[in-house]
Write a structure and sequence with these properties.
Elements: H1 41-46, H2 51-54, E1 58-60, H3 67-71, E2 74-76, H4 79-90, E3 101-108, E4 113-121, H5 124-140, E5 143-148, E6 153-160, E7 169-180, E8 186-198, E9 201-209, H6 215-239
Antiparallel strand pairs: 1-3, 2-5, 3-4, 4-9, 5-6, 6-7, 7-8, 8-9
């Protein structure tokens, strides 16, 4: 048995309309003056996209989703695909040592989905290496099997997720992990994954759940986030 049924929702959940709000950072979280062009923790926090930006049905997260450990903590049957599962489980597409970093979690209350949004500093060359690796996944790991810590076997599919032309470089993936619920019915965890480089900084977004995962929300967060980070960086340079 898996944790796949923990977040299932009725297929008739209402569909919200995502409207793109202003890219300007909240007035209460203006970027602080920086002694250099390096991203600061204050800048990273000011550049975050939050539930207030996305609107209903998004709310501040109530904790890590049950599928995080129940599904993503798994061993792939192909060595080249294990790195992807590990990165999704750790929520560290760009590596654990990327600093400074600001992170926010949001829950879609209508569809029981969860989004994690991060802004972080990383050398541009390293960001581009990560984007190139992600780009290779739909070919190298289009389909593979993974075994969870409970022994459940999942079928994993990796495809391309279209993203808006935001930032300087970007890559999106849609990952489907299919197993069985306790009653034997098929159950699929859907994960939207987006990574992008904005100047010398990076943004990562994951949006997943067993119900309806709104790709429109993922795309809106990417576009708004890239614009906001650009503006925060501009303000920081002006204040120097």
């Amino acid at each position: 048995a898996t944790a796949c049924s923990a977040l299932s929702t009725p297929p008739t959940a209402p569909q919200p309309t995502i409207t793109l709000p202003s890219s300007a950072p909240p007035s209460s979280a203006k970027a602080s003056a920086a002694p250099s062009s390096a991203l600061t923790e204050a800048m990273a926090r000011a550049a975050l996209v939050t539930d207030a930006d996305l609107g209903e049905p998004w709310k501040p997260t109530q904790g890590v989703a049950t599928w995080h450990d129940g599904v993503l903590k798994a061993k792939a049957d192909r060595r080249g695909c294990q790195r992807l599962l590990d990165a999704l489980y750790a929520d560290e597409l760009f590596g654990a040592d990327a600093r400074p970093r600001a992170v926010v979690g949001m829950d879609d209350e209508w569809n029981a989905a969860q989004m994690r949004y991060q802004v972080l500093a990383r050398p541009p060359a390293e960001i581009d290496k990560t984007l190139a690796w992600l780009k290779s996944m739909p070919k190298k790991c289009a389909q593979f099997a993974a075994t969870t810590t409970t022994g459940a076997v999942l079928g994993v599919q990796v495809g391309v997720l279209p993203l808006p032309e935001a930032g300087d470089a970007r890559q999106g993936l849609r990952v489907l992990l299919t197993g069985q619920s306790p009653d034997g019915a098929p159950s699929t965890l859907t994960l939207d994954v987006a990574a992008l480089r904005v100047g010398e900084d990076a943004i990562s977004v994951t949006n997943g759940g067993f119900g309806d995962v709104q790709t429109e929300a993922t795309q809106a967060a990417v576009q708004l986030g890239a614009d906001r980070l650009t503006e925060v960086r501009r303000q920081g340079r002006v204040q120097v």
